[in-house]
Amino acid sequence: MAGKVDFFISFAEQDAEWASWISYVLEEAGYRTLNQRQDMRPGHNFVHQIQQGTLADRTIMVLSPDYFDRPFPESEWGAAYSQDPVGVRRKLVPVRVRPCAPPGLLAQIVYIDLVGLTRDEAHARLLDGLMRARPRPTEEPRFPGGPG
């Protein structure tokens, strides 16, 4: 893949379908993604492609119990974390697809939770969670101080 991408999708092999779905949703919304299963084709240099992924604007971690049992994802998310350790630029965005508790440093990072959602709910939550701007209510919230 030539040129910089918006999102590098980091995942365990057991979550490849989730990674493909996330890539599809983001690309339909106009983002560019790098996903090992889709973009690392025969003849590519795996290490070079992963290095290109670490240059993406943001890294999405597809969180599941399997993600934490694999050695490669740690180096992938570690590269993003080291560039933005306090999350000001939201360089590292966890997306939880199966029940799990992020360990260590990852426990402090707010994640997008897709567990148990319908396709449409997950689609909306993913795109909403990745928006750069702070969401603004579209209508006034209920007044909490009593009768209107």
Could you explain the architecture of this structure?
It holds the Pfam family TIR_2. InterPro entries: TIR_dom, Toll_tir_struct_dom_sf. This is Toll/interleukin-1 receptor domain-containing protein. The chain is α/β, with parallel strands linked by helices and 148 residues long. The chain contains 5 helices and 5 strands. A 5-stranded parallel β-sheet has the order 2-1-3-4-5, sandwiched between helices. It has one domain: Toll/interleukin-1 receptor homology (TIR) domain (Rossmann fold, 3-Layer(aba) Sandwich), CATH 3.40.50.10140. Helix 1 links the parallel strand 1 and strand 2.
Quick overview of this protein structure:
The protein has 148 residues and is of the alpha/beta class. It has a single domain, classed as Toll/interleukin-1 receptor homology (TIR) domain (Rossmann fold), CATH 3.40.50.
Please write out the topology.
Elements: E1 7-10, H1 16-28, E2 33-35, H2 36-39, H3 46-54, E3 58-63, H4 71-83, E4 92-96, E5 112-113, H5 119-130
Parallel strand pairs: 1-2, 1-3, 3-4, 4-5
| CATH architectural designation | 3-Layer(aba) Sandwich
Structural class: alpha/beta
Globally, the shape reads globular
Please, how many helices?
5
Domain TIR: 7-126
Pfam families: TIR_2 (PF13676)
Keywords: Receptor
Protein name: Toll/interleukin-1 receptor domain-containing protein
